[in-house]
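Q: Here's a chain of 92 amino acids. Please give me its 3D structure as tokens.
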Amino acid sequence: MNKLNIKPLGDRIVIEPARAEEKTASGIIIPDTAKEKPQQGTVVAVPAKDKDNDIRVKKGDKVLYGKYAGTEITIDDNDYLIMSQSDILAII
């Protein structure tokens, strides 16, 4: 993981999504068009703590999030999601 130079504002969190499965348990290769978007990832950036926001995740946490949560961005050929902390369902 490269150093990410992005500072989210408010209660926004930057997440690096997990990779989609390439093949099934039985060995069948899944084409790109049929792959499910992952619903888990790793937190890579959180906002600075202040009195207005109570950030409950920290950098490096593995989290689960909603299927359609966040905004997809690409930085240096890496895909990330920026989402509100309330879109995070659980820390795993």
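Q: Can you summarize the key feature?
A: The beta strands are 12-17, 40-45, 62-65, 71-75, 78-84, 88-91.
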